[in-house]
């Protein structure tokens, strides 16, 4: 609490002239007694020690001090239970406050200010900012941040996941934005960089090692619990949250990344450089850029490569969505190559499908040519199934179909459909006879077959067949097996006499001639 000079003068006058006590001065001036103690101590007077009242906890203080000396992280709840067993009857509130005073405090760690040479080091980290809803999907908005340690130039790029492919894409984009690569890249112990660590033994992610070999930099993780070693990127993330992301409006991730690039080259680059206060970050980066490692001729490959299995439907699933493929590749093992914007499906080395990438959930991304080819295949297969059925029950239909197509130019599908209708109406035997007669008459057409069938029906004085429409297309090809009639024979097992007794025989009327 800051007090003005008039109040300080009154405290000193009441103490030295009026000889008032500390509590009296505090009560009369409306301040806390600690304020009076502080003013008097600044005047060279020792602080008046007030006698402490005895407490029921006093006999247990040696035990608490000894126990906390051995186990400084032991909780107050556990200590309270231990002193209760030893006879303590006080309440927990005062006990907790006293334990907080007795608990040993760790010494504050002092850190050296780390300095780096130009183009010597970059620091890398992920930061989670928000969630993005795309259709039915809720995706995390992750920021990839890389900072050049000397100039403090920031690279910022947002992605919709934290997968290894996005981690690699962030590196490649940062190297291209910087126009070079620092000699050492410093990482926290995140799984994208370090898979396992036991002391000084470190097992790096193989994908990161491949990236480092391509760009000739050294990946280096920070020591465990030594956050000061990567403080530049952590401060950069706080700066991004406060100066860039807070209150910002954006349409989609592409728009957000365009704004982030402009911010990195504008507002962020115009701030003062901590290593060279006379320069801005942008001016320091211009000096550092020429010292960076040069980029290779080709960038590192960062596409997702996933092996997928196509089921019985012409789709493969990748990243929560289904992408169409040609129906000729169902029930096969395929490979998906996905960039940020495109998804390609490969069978071996051949690209069989390519789609725009979707970041929604449970979406079907279709190529119209894939679906149309499947429909045509199904229609052709249905036609062939009809031909097979006709060939089984009426072998003469094969010759009729061939001649109807070659000699008369009829469509095979139409001929098969008409013959199947006649088969359902008249039966297999009649159809085989009618087709044979139509071929003998040199009229290979379903209408000639129908005329023969109708003529034979009229000769037998049979009613015309009744067409029963079936709503379901599969019912047209259903096979109906004739039921066994042996059960009906059991109805005639009674003796003939009993039947004659129950069924009277009527005599014909007499002739009245």
Protein model, in words:
The protein has 513 residues and is α+β, with helices and mostly antiparallel strands. It contains 18 helices and 14 strands. The chain has a five-stranded mixed sheet, sandwiched between helices. α2 (22-29) crosses α3 (33-42) and α14 packs parallel to α16 (446-459).
Please render the helix and strand layout as text.
Elements: H1 5-16, H2 22-29, H3 33-42, H4 61-70, H5 76-85, H6 92-102, E1 121-134, E2 137-148, E3 154-159, H7 164-178, E4 184-187, E5 194-198, E6 201-204, H8 206-215, E7 218-221, H9 231-245, H10 253-265, H11 281-289, E8 304-309, E9 315-318, E10 321-324, E11 333-338, E12 342-347, E13 350-356, E14 364-365, H12 368-393, H13 396-406, H14 412-426, H15 428-440, H16 446-459, H17 486-489, H18 496-502
Parallel strand pairs: 1-4, 4-7, 10-14
Antiparallel strand pairs: 1-2, 2-3, 5-6, 8-11, 9-10, 11-12, 12-13
Offer a concise description of the structure.
The chain has 513 residues and is an alpha+beta fold. The chain has 18 helices and 14 strands.
Q: Give the strand content.
A: 15-25%
CATH topology of the largest domain: Nucleotidyltransferase, domain 5
Which regions contain 5 or more consecutive residues with pLDDT less than 50? 496-513
Number of domains: 5
Q: Average pLDDT across residues?
A: 85
Shape: elongated
* Percent in helix: 40-55%
What's the level 1 CATH class of the largest domain? Alpha Beta
